[in-house]
Design goal:
The chain has 303 residues and is an alpha/beta fold. The chain has two domains: 3-92, Four Helix Bundle (Hemerythrin (Met), subunit A), CATH 1.20.120.140; 104-293, P-loop containing nucleotide triphosphate hydrolases (Rossmann fold, 3-Layer(aba) Sandwich). 51% of the residues lie in helices and 14% in strands. The protein has helices at residues 3-26, 35-47, 52-69, 74-89, 116-129, 146-153, 169-182, 200-216, 235-247, 265-272, 294-302, and strands at residues 104-109, 134-139, 159-163, 187-192, 223-229, 251-255, 277-281, 289-291. The protein has an eight-stranded mixed sheet, sandwiched between helices. β7 (277-281) and β8 form a beta hairpin. α1 (3-26) crosses α11 (294-302) and α3 crosses α4 (74-89). The protein is elongated. The protein binds guanosine-5'-triphosphate and magnesium ion. Magnesium ion binds next to α5. Residues 110, 112-118, 140, 193-194, 227, 255-256, 258-259, 281-284, 288 line the site of guanosine-5'-triphosphate.
Length: 303
């Protein structure tokens, strides 16, 4: 992607996180480096969904940096905090690798309305732009409109869909992986219906989809992604834990960072359940999906 579009995209992320960012940045305005500063920072980080553990970790880390750098003004502390957040988030950076397996089978799960289908549409476009052929499995067989929604998102000319309305989601997934193999597709993306971790029968259904995919291709699924809505706050961490325990997640997509999302939850995830963030979503348009970059994210948060 050209540098200019990456910059435009970064502006979107900045605008999205501004509400939180200003909250954290405001702490540094006309501030002295004293205990009151750290206390206000603690409050601002907690308000930004950073969670108690990551907040404690960041403040401790920041104190060390301030000491070592012998920082004397608050703006310097702000930059050091941005560095601390970037370092904390860096282990979450990881590119999605396509091509090691043909097809690469990617299963996508998450709670209702998190942005799964939209993200799959964006991802399809992203992959198609890179020359990969994509087959979609509409394993969200609950909603009559799910297949149409996928079709709207995915370019009708570059993508094929396997669906079976009202059918069994694992059967659709099985057929799709077999079709992907037979047709030599590079990627099979499996869209599943939204569900809450507390709906145990639906969590079992996800396990079944995964098992059946493995029957169609012993090496699959190659990726199991959880889509989380960036607005869910600390509950996102609970979702990561629950879906990881059920499915064994390989990556995350964090959506809706263009809205009222506070962003700090990524720090909580990095500290408590570090699963790679492959992509972040900053809007409803096809191009509003980008790879996750820890430094950019920290800068968008802290300016
Ligand atoms: N602003 C914004 N809206 C988004 C983003 N991603 C998804 N949405 C919106 O969120 C809503 C739900 O998106 P879907 O993709 O249908 O969510 P889903 O997880 O597939 O939902 P279910 O299949 O019903 O569980 C839609 O209105 C999307 O346009 C994003 O990054 N930013
Ligand atoms: Mg959906």
């Amino acid at each position: 992607m050209p540098a200019s579009s990456r910059t435009g995209w970064l502006d979107k992320l900045k605008a999205g996180l501004r509400k939180t960012g200003t909250g954290i940045q405001a702490v540094f305005v006309n501030a002295q480096i004293d205990e009151a500063l750290y206390e206000e920072l603690e409050a601002a980080l907690l308000m930004a969904d950073t969670g108690v553990k990551a907040t404690e970790f960041l403040l401790e880390d920041l104190r060390g940096r301030v000491k070592r750098q012998m920082a004397t003004d608050a703006q310097q502390v702000r930059r050091l905090l941005a560095e601390a957040i970037a370092d904390l988030l860096r282990p979450l950076e990881k590119p999605l690798v396509i091509g090691r397996y043909t097809p690469t089978v990617i299963m996508v799960a998450g709670v209702n309305g998190a942005g799964k289908t939209t993200s799959i549409g964006k991802l399809t476009k992203h992959l198609a732009n890179e020359g990969a052929s994509v087959l979609l499995a509409a394993a969200d067989t609950f909603r009559a409109a799910a297949r149409e929604q996928l079709l709207v998102w995915a370019d009708r000319n570059t993508v094929e869909i396997v669906s079976n309305e009202g059918g069994d989601p694992s059967a659709v997934s099985f057929d799709a992986v077999n079709a992907g193999k037979a047709r030599g597709k590079d990627v099979v993306l499996v869209d599943t219906a939204g569900r809450l971790p507390t709906q145990l029968h639906l969590m079992d259904e996800l396990k079944k989809i995964k098992r059946v995919v493995t029957k169609a291709d012993a090496t699959a699924p190659h990726e199991v992604l959880l889509v989380i809505d960036g607005n869910t706050g600390q509950n996102a961490l609970a979702q990561v834990r629950a879906f990881d325990e059920t499915l064994g997640l390989t990556g995350l997509i964090v959506t809706k960072l263009d809205g009222t999302a506070k962003g700090g939850v990524l720090c909580a995830i990095a500290r408590e359940r570090p699963i790679p963030v492959y992509f972040i979503g900053v809007g409803e348009k096809l191009e509003d999906l980008e790879t996750f970059d820890a430094r950019e994210f920290a800068q968008a948060l802290l300016g």
